[in-house]
Amino acid sequence: MIKRIRKAVFPVAGLGTRFLPATKAVPKEMLNIVDRPILQHVVEEAIEAGIEHFCFVTGRNKGVIEDHFDMSYELEDTLKRRGKNKEHAAMTAMLPAAGATSFTRQQAPLGLGHAIWCAREIIGDEPFAVLLPDMITMSAKGSQRRCMKQCVEAYGQHGGNIIAVETVPPADTHKYGVVSIGADNGHSFEITGMVEKPPQGTAPSNLIISGRYILQPEIFELLGAVGTGAGGEIQLTDGMKALAAKQEFHGVRFDGRTFDCGSKLGFLSANVAFALEDADIADAFRAELKGALG
Asked: Which candidate, 154, 174, 177, 171, places its Cα nearest to that of 251?
């Protein structure tokens, strides 16, 4: 029987050096996309996919993340007394249930694989999701299914391990983890291999790993033994390659849009895209954009 995906890991210990000085005191995950932090967009995507427990792997100076997903009695009381019901509802709607969040520390920046490994005691012996907080997704027009929802649906069909992918120009594949394609039904496909940042011209496809995963718990033992890889860090891709020798992996082609908010261009693009989807400001914002573009 396929076990249900109840828990998700959010590796939020990164330093955000590409956004300095903005991230000197504010974690990059807490920078806003329109009216909410990047990380809240990602958590909402997990909730949409049925996730019930949220494990944040943090680092130093990340306490504001824990505060954000907690109650704020003074603020909530003030909003209620002033009749700001819409704002109060928005504040409380995004709060996970009591006991549904866990926080653990990655004491040293040893890579994504090490960050996931740090969550091993919280996740335990069950399959789990991983959502990279730099990446936020937007469902396709007419759909309410963001990327993790589609991954969970594919997991229900295939079991095993699931990786979300997207297409990039062949000239850009050397920047990412890239997968090899096996049996393919158009939306999901068998993954027959993975390579991290292949030299230009050697990638097995132009499908890159895009920051959403469903993994079996055996990955933890492998990550603990795999050693350092590219960049002198413990790479999640290396752990997945070791797991793929024992278990099936399938890829999911996400049919919406993904924004890399770890880059300035991706961050700004996400703000524009989400602003244009916000009914309260879309028309006025579109007019402002047209004016700015001359």
From this structure: 154
